[in-house]
């Protein structure tokens, strides 16, 4: 690995001494480090990002042709950026979206730089979609997938800062569950005999014990137990009949 040391200003192809790959790498290490730092705090250590950026810089230095008529940085920056984004695509996802979205996000990153240079402002999703010949909905989905690298912490402050995001998330309302159960069970209970409906009400509404129910309806505790088992079995079968077909 090339030592990470600071050096002089980046070398351009206009230099008359035709710099070697080693010199191009050495002189542009600060550029690679700066590019790596732009991706910090996204779930991957900065040291790892710098190593990936150095790999991209090394590839660019060995592939660079000074006779092509372009300066080295114009050639190297896209290569380093591509290595960083490839590393995130392969290693940086906390929640992995579909591969097509990962690939599209990489293309969007390049298109954003190209369009911003032309428009002198960030491109909106519609402009990105036209530039990439993709559906706008897919571009929006890929843009929102950026949070998959490092999802927002539920312990982070939200709103005016007095609450965390986790405290603002909704939870299952027991009242809704009970209401749904009543709606499902009401027609089934209505179909029971009068004594069975009374036993159901005493047990599940008034919450009497089986012995107390037995005394109320003139049965033994064992008989009440068997009647309740039969009623519950009928209700379960009835709920099964109400379930939608798969």
From TrEMBL:
Pfam families: Sigma70_r2, Sigma70_r4
Keywords, in A-Z order: DNA-binding, Sigma factor, Transcription, Transcription regulation
Keyword DNA-binding in annotation: yes
RNA polymerase sigma-70 region domain boundaries: 24-93, 190-237
Keyword Transcription set for record: yes
InterPro entries found in the cross-reference section: RNA_pol_sigma-70_dom, RNA_pol_sigma70, RNA_pol_sigma70_r2, RNA_pol_sigma70_r4, RNA_pol_sigma_r2, RNA_pol_sigma_r3/r4-like, WH-like_DNA-bd_sf
Segments of this protein annotated with the region Disordered: 1-20
PANTHER family the record matches: RNA POLYMERASE SIGMA-E FACTOR, SIGMA FACTOR F FLAGELLAR
Annotated protein name in UniProt: Sigma-70 family RNA polymerase sigma factor
């Amino acid at each position: 690995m090339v030592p990470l040391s600071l050096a002089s200003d980046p070398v351009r192809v206009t230099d008359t001494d035709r710099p070697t790959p080693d010199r191009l790498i050495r002189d542009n290490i600060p550029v690679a480090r700066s590019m790596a730092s732009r991706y910090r705090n996204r779930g991957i250590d900065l040291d790892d990002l710098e190593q990936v950026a150095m790999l991209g810089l090394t590839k660019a230095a060995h592939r660079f042709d000074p006779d092509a008529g372009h300066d080295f940085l114009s050639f190297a920056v896209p290569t380093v950026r591509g290595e960083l984004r490839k590393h995130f695509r392969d290693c940086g996802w906390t929640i992995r979206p579909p591969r097509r979205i990962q690939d599209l996000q990489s293309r969007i990153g390049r298109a954003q730089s190209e369009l911003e240079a032309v428009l002198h402002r960030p491109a909106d999703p519609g402009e990105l979609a036209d530039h990439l010949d993709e559906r706008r909905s897919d571009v929006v989905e890929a843009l929102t997938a950026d949070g998959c690298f490092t999802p927002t912490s539920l312990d982070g402050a939200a709103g005016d800062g007095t609450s965390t995001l986790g405290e603002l998330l909704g939870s299952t309302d027991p009242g809704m569950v009970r209401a749904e159960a009543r709606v499902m069970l009401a027609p089934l209970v209505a179909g029971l005999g009068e004594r069975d409906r009374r036993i159901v009400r005493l047990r599940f509404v008034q919450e009497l014990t089986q012995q107390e129910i037995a005394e109320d309806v003139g049965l033994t505790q064992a008989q009440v137990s068997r009647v309740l088992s039969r009623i519950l079995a009928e209700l379960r079968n009835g709920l099964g009949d109400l379930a939608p077909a798969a």
